[in-house]
């Protein structure tokens, strides 16, 4: 399990030992979290006031605070975020590292929950809050963190994510200046990196939206479907076949719950350690239909303790998907490289480039790296 004292032993679990480590919801006002005040480390200069003044002049502070127009209020918010970026009116990388650390420390408080770590469910929160993006309408994605609102929070694909949102709310209370979109995606980065996965480039700049921005149901993958469905869902986000397969590798972590998705079981024998085992098992094990009263899913014939979803198994059946899945099964290094790149893109879907506080994403340090340097 993943108690704090067992962190190091867990990361050396059998299925990862041979692979070097490279790396409650509350009631919300109609208007989302107010623009955060400057942290103590933030710079204060004439450029700051000029930048903020420009944003206020464009949109009007009174409109931002009191207007009944959601679109107007959001546009002003985005303008203020851009002005803050230009004026360096943002928390420092060190401030975000502190948030990362708090999230990472939270993983070890899981006790008996899901194999002893909150990491997988927090990664799922980051994934699902970003994967609603539609490149044609430029709606959805991580920018507005709309899973805070109904009906999106109640969509079937998001069942059980109230656990992750509640956990992130504790961090939000300690660092009220961070937006939910930044918090949730940073949580996803921490989950991957703390569970022995690759480094995920990340940068802040998301703003909190309104309930009116909540996305319609059906934008996330339906595990009962096949290859055409995967291409439709991920193609809407802007991903190709190789990227679809790489993103599917996130199933190396966590498990399904019959009380949530209807499916049951872990994908790998080490669900709190990230490796390419998901792909290796797809090819190495014999998968048969599970005989039970739940939805159709596969189980490994040998132990009957692992499961694969129809959307997982299709990666071995579709000719294009199969070649990428086979390559990742053969090389953990290649999988980590491609997974890192595509997850970094996933977490930035829907965020206007000018809102980001840095021209290039940052690499956050994991807890072990910081312990080594102390």
TrEMBL record:
Keyword presence, Oxidoreductase: yes
Enzyme Commission (EC) number: 1.11.1.-
A molecular-function term among this protein's GO annotations: metal ion binding
Domain Plant heme peroxidase family profile: 115-371
EC primary class: oxidoreductase
Pfam families, per the entry: peroxidase
Mitochondrion recorded as keyword: yes
A GO cellular component entry from the record: mitochondrial intermembrane space
Catalysed reactions, as listed in the record: 2 Fe(II)-[cytochrome c] + H2O2 + 2 H(+) = 2 Fe(III)-[cytochrome c] + 2 H2O
One of the protein's GO biological processes: response to reactive oxygen species
InterPro entries assigned to the protein according to its UniProt record, in alphabetical order: Ccp1-like (IPR044831), Haem_peroxidase (IPR002016), Haem_peroxidase_sf (IPR010255), Peroxidase_I (IPR002207), Peroxidases_AS (IPR019794), Peroxidases_heam-ligand_BS (IPR019793)
Location in the cell: Mitochondrion intermembrane space; Mitochondrion matrix
Keywords: Heme, Iron, Metal-binding, Mitochondrion, Oxidoreductase, Peroxidase, Transit peptide
Family named by the database record: Belongs to the peroxidase family. Cytochrome c peroxidase subfamily.
Protein purpose: Destroys radicals which are normally produced within the cells and which are toxic to biological systems.
Name of protein: Peroxidase
Origin species: Collybia nuda
Source species taxonomy: Eukaryota, Fungi, Dikarya, Basidiomycota, Agaricomycotina
């Amino acid at each position: 399990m993943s108690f704090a004292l067992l962190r190091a032993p867990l990361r050396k679990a059998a299925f990862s030992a041979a692979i070097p480590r490279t790396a409650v919801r509350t009631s919300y006002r109609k208007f989302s979290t107010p623009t955060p005040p400057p942290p103590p480390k933030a710079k204060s200069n004439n450029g700051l006031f000029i930048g903020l003044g420009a944003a206020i002049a464009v949109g009007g502070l009174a409109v931002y605070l009191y207007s009944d127009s959601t679109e107007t209020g959001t546009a002003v918010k985005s303008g203020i975020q851009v002005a803050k970026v230009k004026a360096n009116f943002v928390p420092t990388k060190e401030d975000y590292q502190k948030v990362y650390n708090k999230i990472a420390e939270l993983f070890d408080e899981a006790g008996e929950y899901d194999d002893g770590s909150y990491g997988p469910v927090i990664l799922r929160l980051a994934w699902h809050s970003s994967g609603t993006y539609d490149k044609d309408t430029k709606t959805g994605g991580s920018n507005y963190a709309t899973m805070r609102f109904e009906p999106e929070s109640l969509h079937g694909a998001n069942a059980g994510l109230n656990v992750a949102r509640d956990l992130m709310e504790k961090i939000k209370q300690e660092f009220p200046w961070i937006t939910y979109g930044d918090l949730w995606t940073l949580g996803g980065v921490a989950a991957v990196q703390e569970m022995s996965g690759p480094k995920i480039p990340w940068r802040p700049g998301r703003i909190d939206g309104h309930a009116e921005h909540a996305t319609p149901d059906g934008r996330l993958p339906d595990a009962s479907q096949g290859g055409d469905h995967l291409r439709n869902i991920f193609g809407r986000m802007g991903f190709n076949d190789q990227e679809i397969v790489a993103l599917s590798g996130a199933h190396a972590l966590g498990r399904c719950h019959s009380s949530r998705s209807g499916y049951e079981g872990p994908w790998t024998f080490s669900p709190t350690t990230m490796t390419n085992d998901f792909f290796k098992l797809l090819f190495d094990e014999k998968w048969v239909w599970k005989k039970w009263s739940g939805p159709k899913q596969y189980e490994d014939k040998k132990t009957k303790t692992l499961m694969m979803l129809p959307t997982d198994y299709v990666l071995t059946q579709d000719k294009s998907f199969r070649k990428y899945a086979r390559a990742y099964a053969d090389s953990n290094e290649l999988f980590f490289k491609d997974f890192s790149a595509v997850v970094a893109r996933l977490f930035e879907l829907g965020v206007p480039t000018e809102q980001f506080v840095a021209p290039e994403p940052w690499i956050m340090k994991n807890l072990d790296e910081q312990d080594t340097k102390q």
